[in-house]
């Protein structure tokens, strides 16, 4: 039986979620979306900072590690979606960051502060 991309995505997002819980994070949202985009996981790290996490899985490293799939346009959508979330939840003034969870067959690599919102016009 062939697995579709959404099922694969859900599997690895759940893996990332469990990884974050073990690191002491609290998960606030899973697959938050608005008209500007989607964020895989939103949570609070142990220091109570809001984290917006993009989960990327690659079954092979033939085209490079998974984090390379988080390109400029993807980052822009994540930043803009995060700002909608912050406004919607009235979290202005809270500290936040953008992280990437890169998952390949051989490892999970968690990259805190993978990119910044400063590079995007909002």
The percent range for strand residues is: 25-35%
Topology-level CATH name = Trna Endonuclease, Chain: A, domain 1
Total DSSP E strands? 5
CATH structural class: Alpha Beta
- Counting helices, strands and paired strands, the structural category is alpha+beta
Question: Which spans have pLDDT < 50 for at least 5 consecutive residues?
Answer: none
Oligomer: single chain
Strand order of the largest sheet: 1-2-3-4-5
Shape: globular
**What is the makeup of the main sheet?**
5 strands, mixed
> In the residues, how many domains can be counted?
1
The H-and-E topology, N to C, reads as HEEEHEE
- Report how far the terminal alpha carbons are from each other: 43 Å
Percent range of helical residues: 25-40%
The appropriate CATH architecture is: 3-Layer(aba) Sandwich
Average pLDDT metric: 89
Gyration radius (Cα, Å) is: 14 Å
* Helix count from the secondary structure assignment: 2
Could you explain the architecture of this structure?
The protein has a single domain, classed as Trna Endonuclease, Chain: A, domain 1 (3-Layer(aba) Sandwich). Helices cover 29% and strands 34% of the residues. The protein has 2 helices and 5 strands. A 5-stranded mixed beta sheet has the order 1-2-3-4-5. Strand 2 and strand 3 form a beta hairpin. The radius of gyration is 14 Å and the shape is globular. The model has no long low-confidence stretch (mean pLDDT 89).
